[in-house]
């Protein structure tokens, strides 16, 4: 026997569903901005003009930034 279920949302549930779209949009924007900021900051690393840095520290910073970007990359 085929049963058909009918769902009726309560007003409070509809409010939460409406808010969810906004929360999801804000979250996605935050992730996008974070990735863009991390990419922009790695592009500002001086690589010419006699710049000097501890290679282990630079490598650790870049690896950390890449790890964060990969963890935040939206599907």
How would you summarize the topology of this molecule?
Elements: H1 11-43, H2 55-72
Helix pairs in contact: 1-2
Pfam families: QWRF (PF04484)
Family: Belongs to the QWRF family.
Organism: Sesamum angolense
Characterize this entry briefly.
By secondary structure, this protein is mainly α.
The tally of strands reads 0
Task: Report the C-alpha radius of gyration, rounded.
Answer: 23 Å
Characterize the main sheet: none
- Helix share, percent: 55-70%
- The mean pLDDT is 78
Anisotropy-based shape: elongated
Number of helices: 2
Give the end-to-end Cα distance, rounded to a whole number of Å: 40 Å
Percentage of residues in DSSP E strands: under 5%
Helix-strand sequence: HH
Can you tell me about this structure?
This protein has helices at 11-43, 55-72. The protein has 75 residues and is an all-alpha fold. The longest helix has 33 residues, at 11-43. It starts with 10 loop residues before the first helix and ends with a helix. It contains two helices and no strands.
Which characteristics define this entry?
mainly alpha, 75 residues
